[in-house]
Amino acid sequence: MEIWINRSCSKCSSALSLLDAEGAQYTVRRCLEQPPTVEEIEQVLGRLDLEPWDITRTGELAAVDLGMSTWERDAAHRDHWIRALADYPILIQRPIITADDGTTVVGRSADAIRSVLA
């Protein structure tokens, strides 16, 4: 499995600790150092069955600077949101875990993380 993290994120640290405690094999992707592409974000959104605004950290300074709180949340503006996530990976909710079978979760809770281990 692969886990997208930000090193300074406490939820990411907790997720890594839980994965280690469960003996999971995983690859770490530091999103700020290796930002996901537009295509990768689209794939993850498809697996999560979410829209880009659902995984956007709108409280981040970059989101405020971009005025994202005023952006339309509809199909016509979806690509604009995805491009922003690719350009500013700090905006991506984390951690995001993708299991080898394609199961993908935003691992902000122990239950979410364990769901990809089952």
Describe the structure concisely:
Helices cover 38% and strands 12% of the residues. With 118 residues, it is α+β, with helices and mostly antiparallel strands.
What labels describe this entry?
single chain, 118 residues, alpha+beta, four-stranded mixed sheet, globular
Taking pLDDT < 50 over at least 5 consecutive residues as the criterion, the unreliable ranges are none
Give the amount of beta strand, in percent: 5-15%
Order of strands across the biggest sheet? 2-1-3-4
Gyration radius from CA atoms, angstroms: 14 Å
Helix/strand structural class: alpha+beta
E-strand count: 4
Mean pLDDT: 96
Q: Roughly how many Å apart are the termini?
A: 12 Å
- What percent of the residues sit in helical stretches (DSSP H or I)? 25-40%
Instruction: Give the overall shape, derived from the CA principal axes.
Output: globular
Q: Biggest sheet, open or closed, and with what strands and sense?
A: 4 strands, mixed
Order of helices and strands: EHEHHHEEH
If helices are DSSP runs of H or I spanning 4 or more residues, what is the number of helices? 5
What does this structure look like?
A four-stranded mixed beta sheet has the order 2-1-3-4, sandwiched between helices. The chain is 38% helix and 12% strand. The chain is globular. It is of the alpha+beta class and 118 residues long. The chain contains five helices and four strands, in the order βαβαααββα.
